Amino acid sequence: MLGIPFAYCERAMSATLNRTANPILLYVPDQCSGAGELEAVTRSVAPPRKLWVSRTLDDLRARLLERVPIPEVAILMVPTTEHLDAILSLRDPLLATRVILVLFEDGKDAIAKAHSLRPRFVSTIEGGFLAVAEVLSRLIHGAEGGRSIPDGPRHRFNAREQAACPIGS
Q1: For the range 2-9, what are the long-range contacts, defined as Cβ-Cβ under 8 Å and sequence gap of 24 or more?
Q2: pLDDT at 163 exceeding the cut of 80
Q3: Is residue 69 within 8 Å of residue 15, measured between CB atoms?
Q4: What residues have CB less than 8 Å from 68, skipping those under 6 apart?
Q5: How far, in Å, CA of 64 to CA of 164, rounded?
Q6: For residue range 32-66, what is the model confidence (pLDDT) as tens digits?
Q7: What is the pLDDT of residues 61-108, one digit of tens each?
């Protein structure tokens, strides 16, 4: 016997199987420019009762190590290389979560490090938060047919159109 209380195992299994009940974790350090805008965009997409906001690395670490419930999506604003290194130390608890990263640096080293977290989407603060909101919406509600292009007019692509317009022709 492992010595883990049955109630804990049951809640963990339930949280893993029923992802719709799991929270959305938003990490926005207070000192970051754009933190308020990212929080507002996230609140506009996420159901209000499901959003957990962390403003310090210690709070983020505590919420991730708590393990129950496992966050459905984690949106992490990473203002510095030191923050990225601290978040990389939380890689194991983040493996069960779909991650969206918002980086301040778009250098090759920062992006290479960020990809070790296996994010679903990586953005920078300069790119704005429209794409982050669209990706978050799709992760929460699921894709509703096709793929849209956030920068241009809303156009849906399907397999038939893609086959009719091969790239490079």
Answers
A1: 8/68
A2: no
A3: yes
A4: 8, 11, 12, 15
A5: 45
A6: 888 889 999 999 998 888 899 999 999 999 988 88
A7: 998 888 678 889 999 999 888 899 999 999 998 988 999 999 987 778
- Reading the block at residue 89, the tokens are 């130390």
Query: What are the residue ranges spanned by the domains of the chain?
Result: 6-164
Task: Name the CA dihedral angle for 118, 124, 128, 129, rounded to a multiple of 10 degrees.
Answer: 20
- Residue 1, pLDDT > 50, answer no
With a CB cutoff of 8 Å and minimum separation 6, the contacts of 52 are 23, 24, 25, 26, 63, 71
CB 114 within 8 A of CB 84: yes
Rounded distance between C-alpha atoms, residue 161 and residue 149, angstroms: 15
53 bridge partner residues = 26
pTM: 0.71
> Is the distance from CB of 23 to CB of 71 less than 8 angstroms?
yes
| Contact between residue 120 and residue 94 where contact means Cβ atoms under 8 Å apart | no
Q: Which CATH architecture has domain 6-164?
A: 3-Layer(aba) Sandwich (3.40)
| Percent of the chain as helix, strand, coil, to the nearest 5 | 50, 15, 35
